[in-house]
């Protein structure tokens, strides 16, 4: 999807230590909710999946194993819920398990290519409308898919669904899962503890990407807007990918572009620390700052519609260094009142410039290369507008 230099960067990147966090006063209470109660909580909207959580990522075989474990009484890992208000909970850890139960009772399993869209619908509506739930473009039937217990010995639960569990249905409905409900007492501003809990609970055995961690630690109204704009048809067309990336790499590309625009002159490695710093700053953005930022993105995407998509490609893959450099340089010029008009020829001129290529070919996150790309892009855009 992305150019090789950036793919290599993502493969090699390590999650770094964050700044010292605040001391919290939290209360936690264990509750053993049965499956029927858990489903009712989700269905009623009492339990919600916060915006910074990743999409549902389990396949149907893994989901089936969880359901089988509940039916036969095997232990299931506990779930962490954060109490926002009375009878209002956010899922901190356990989304995959909770949504598997929800989907199984509904007898519908989400198709992989539509999960980002389903997630948005679920987040906006607080539930999944029946017309979407029963649309085969979004969901397939959730029949358990379980391997043989021994060669030639079929699993007795294989191909069953919730309505055909028979005598096992009551057993499933009444099976309990331990839920740890956490509530913050101090500090009174509760905007940070949930994200720190999410980060720490989800880095023990799950390989989250730096952007997934960042989205939890630095969640803000800016990030809410960023997630919405990531679904913009013009941006999806520019990337050449209809569905958002399950691990938020497309979100990170947009974030990098904003960060280089706003803080590119102050850039120092690593890119992880740089994006964390920008995300932390963005938590303080008011409505006017967010509006100004995303109006520039709106303008850029409208102008970029005039550019053939292959101009953004390097070795047949979307070039992140090219996009972020042109975006940052163009937005700076626009902020200064300088006329910027895009064309396929102009984007290709920047992409094929020998100096730009030298800055974009290797060690793409070194200071001289990030600043060098931005300088070349600005010079060419400025010359074209004179």
From TrEMBL:
Family matches, as InterPro entries: GmrSD_N
GmrSD restriction endonucleases N-terminal domain boundaries: 36-218
Protein known as: GmrSD restriction endonucleases N-terminal domain-containing protein
Lineage: Bacteria, Bacillati, Actinomycetota, Actinomycetes, Micromonosporales
